[in-house]
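Here is one such tokenized protein:
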Amino acid sequence: MKTINTCGLTRYSPLIPAIKAWYEAQPGEMLEIIMDNPLAFNDLKEFLAEQKIGFREIYDGEQMSVQFTK
């Protein structure tokens, strides 16, 4: 599983590395995106739902993550 941790990003949206990782992933590859920005997290979940990609949400304190297979 490839993990992308976007916590603490302030120079640009955490969605940029998350979406980039999705596009670069091979079919069947598992990804985990970790975020600490609730707005970006909701946007990522919306993007995945629009792409009809099922995902698992995990909440751990102030961090949130989604796991999915491309």
Notes: The mean pLDDT is 93. The CA atoms of residues 2 and 65 lie 13 Å apart. Helices lie at 15-24, 38-50. The chain has one domain: 2-69.
